[in-house]
């Protein structure tokens, strides 16, 4: 007989199930297809660089609330929930997952917040100059005095800064790859040169040994020939003189 699940496990499962049902009910007007289309719309390569934009949360949102939003969106666009559009759902799911990982980390989240603060600061400076220009023209207000238009101006500059950061990251990665490639090629060249030097040294040693052996053989043959010639000279006897017959 199977063991009964612990009460604590049952409670957690029930809480999770209740949360899932609440998500389904709350997002009934925001369909998975709409979220997939949003995350894969034209220009999404750069638009999705802003993790707050991907998860549709404000920069001031707490990490806990960001996590809830991440669960909600990942549930909506999960490939298993969109089997009729699994490939696009997978891309959307990966975008959501990447955004959450970025904001989950304190370091990367701070970098994103710094970019947004920089966008706000630069936007305020540009709008201050624009107000001066409008005042000279006798105009009291600028279009960006409207909160929605101001927010849009910050949004546009934020996207630009995220895009600039990504380009710098890619350039740095490309330079790093080129440098690693150059170093590897240099290492290969040095290894080949060392191998060639060792091969030359080996051949030289072998040829020297052959030369020595050849010289020794020549010397031995020369001594042998000299000895034989000397022996022949020693063994040579002049003919005896015969008396003259009368």
UniProtKB/TrEMBL annotation:
InterPro entries: DnaJ_domain (IPR001623), DNAJC8 (IPR042858), J_dom_sf (IPR036869). Residues 225-240 have a biased composition (Basic residues). GO terms for cellular component: nucleus. It comes from the Eukaryota. SUPFAM superfamilies: Chaperone J-domain. Residues 171-246 are annotated as: Disordered. It holds the Pfam family DnaJ. Residues 171-186, 193-211 have a biased composition (Basic and acidic residues). Residues 50-138 form the J domain. This is DnaJ-like subfamily C member 8. The lineage of its organism: Eukaryota, Metazoa, Ecdysozoa, Arthropoda, Hexapoda.
């Amino acid at each position: 007989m199977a063991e009964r699940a612990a009460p604590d496990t049952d409670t957690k499962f029930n809480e999770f199930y209740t949360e899932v049902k609440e998500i389904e009910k709350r997002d009934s007007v925001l369909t998975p297809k709409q979220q997939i289309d949003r995350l894969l719309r034209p220009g999404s390569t750069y638009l999705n660089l802003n993790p707050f934009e991907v998860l549709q949360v404000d920069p001031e949102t707490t990490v806990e609330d960001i996590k809830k939003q991440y669960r909600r969106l990942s549930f909506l666009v999960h490939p298993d929930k969109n089997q009729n559009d699994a490939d696009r759902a997978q891309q959307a799911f990966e975008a959501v997952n990447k955004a959450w990982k970025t904001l989950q980390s304190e370091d990367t989240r701070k970098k994103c917040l710094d970019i947004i603060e920089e966008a706000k600061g630069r936007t305020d400076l540009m709008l201050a100059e624009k107000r001066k220009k409008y005042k000279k023209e006798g105009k009291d207000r600028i279009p960006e005095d409207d909160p929605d238009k101001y927010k849009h101006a910050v949004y546009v500059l934020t996207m630009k800064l995220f895009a600039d950061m990504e380009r710098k990251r890619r350039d740095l990665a490309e330079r790093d790859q080129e440098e690693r490639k150059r170093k590897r090629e240099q290492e290969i060249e040095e290894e080949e040169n060392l191998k060639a030097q060792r091969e030359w040294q080996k051949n030289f040693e072998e040829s020297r040994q052959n030369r020595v052996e050849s010289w020794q053989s020549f010397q031995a043959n020369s001594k042998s020939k000299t000895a034989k010639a000397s022996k022949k000279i020693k063994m040579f006897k002049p003919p005896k003189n015969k008396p003259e017959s009368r």
